[in-house]
Amino acid sequence: MALPAAKGGVRALIFDFDGLILDTEVAIYDAWREMYAAHGFPLTLETWAQCVGSDFGHYDPQVELEQFVGRTLDWPALTDTRRKRVNEILADKQPMPGVRDRLREAQEHGLVCAVASSSSHRWVDGWIDRLDLRPFFSHVSCLEDTGKAKPDPSLFLHAAAALNVEPAEAIVLEDSLNGMRAAHAAGMRCIVVPCEVTKHLAFDGAWKHHRSLEEFTVPDLFV
């Protein structure tokens, strides 16, 4: 049975991808950390968290590593190695616990769903198809669509427009500070479900804060 939008004013759910739908953030961090270690330098979780959910506009690990080693590095080769390492780590990964259940509930209650990610379409769409999640999503917004990464609100606004809903009618699900800030800037409520890379952060101002997508149901959002 479809719930009316007037109940809680909700018509749409907009999901982040990395760290929320798939546990990619740990794999990406580990690959970068291993690269730093190979050059004799640490990459702490606190430092890395600056770019989680965004791009390298505020913190660029490539620039930092070159500053550490004092020379220009062969980034095409290093990037190829890093991407292969990420794919190795993610080879058998499945969606985060609760993802499929929440998406099914959204369908059952007449909500439309989208993804809004600071990553590329190649990355996000590839995984959505591989994980067989495409039927759940009416739209996917990625960095190429707006040219601006979170915490800029443009990705969430782009997704809402594609779903034909007002910002106040959409609830965002995020795992990062940059994502939460983008949701707030877009005028949307945000449920924060931190991943292993972001669980140490303080998400002050989150509409709701859960340790897992299994801790709530879609009907809970209408209470």
Question: What would you note in describing this structure?
Answer:
The protein is α/β, with parallel strands linked by helices and 223 residues long. It folds into 2 domains: 12-22 and 97-222, HAD superfamily/HAD-like (Rossmann fold, 3-Layer(aba) Sandwich), CATH 3.40.50; 25-90. The protein is built from 9 helices and 6 strands, in the order βαααααβαβααβαββ. A 6-stranded parallel β-sheet has the order 3-2-1-4-5-6, sandwiched between helices. α1 (24-38) packs across α4 (75-90). The longest helix has 16 residues, at 75-90. It starts with 11 loop residues before the first strand and ends in a 14-residue tail after the last strand. The model has no long low-confidence stretch (mean pLDDT 92).
Summarize the structure.
This protein has 223 residues and is an alpha/beta fold. The protein has nine helices and six strands, in the order E-H-H-H-H-H-E-H-E-H-H-E-H-E-E.
Q: What spatial form do the alpha-carbon principal axes imply?
A: globular
The CATH superfamily of the largest domain appears as: HAD superfamily/HAD-like
- Strands of the widest sheet, in order across it, are 3-2-1-4-5-6
Low-confidence stretches: none
Number of strands: 6
Order of SSEs: EHHHHHEHEHHEHEE
CATH topology of the largest domain: Rossmann fold
Cα separation of the termini: 16 Å
Instruction: Please give the CATH architecture of the largest domain.
Output: 3-Layer(aba) Sandwich
Largest sheet: 6 strands, parallel
Rounded to an integer in angstroms, the radius of gyration calculated over CA atoms is 18 Å
Q: Any idea of the CATH class of the largest domain?
A: Alpha Beta
Assign a percent range to the helix content: 25-40%
**Which structural category fits the helices and strands?**
alpha/beta
